[in-house]
Amino acid sequence: MASPQATPKVSTAPSLLQVLLASNTSNSSLFQVFWLVARLAAGGLMIHNGLDKLADIQGFADNVVSYIGLPYPVFFTYCAAYIEVVSAALIMLGLLSRPNALALLATMGVAIFFHIKGNGLKVTPLETASLYATFYTFFLVNGPGQWSLDELIAKKIRS
Length: 159
Known about the structure:
With 159 residues, this protein is mainly alpha-helical. Helix content is 75%, strand content 0%. It has one domain.
């Protein structure tokens, strides 16, 4: 009598790249439209902040980075400015959205710290950085949505 042979298990777990690129999905087109609009707004408005920093590197370094006590204020100003320009543009495209959302969330964490250190818990200076942080947390957790370059790449990998 022949012994039954064990069939090898096929892993259905997604690869790290698939997890990084794929979005949590919703079949609602209306939801996807709002997701895209949120991504474009959160990215497009942040680019403006980065360009403002690049327009006055020394001023931002002296008035913000030095104030919160970070070393190498000019270096960190360039880091923040380029993260805000490049990562925000990539968020708009929906390309490598989760790592870019994490980078932008970190810059917003520093901005929130700066506003709390300078003004306490007054709402006005805190609200913009907090709203941006909320958007970037959403993209970090959920990805960029179905209408993104990440989703196109993830579909290619799946097929």
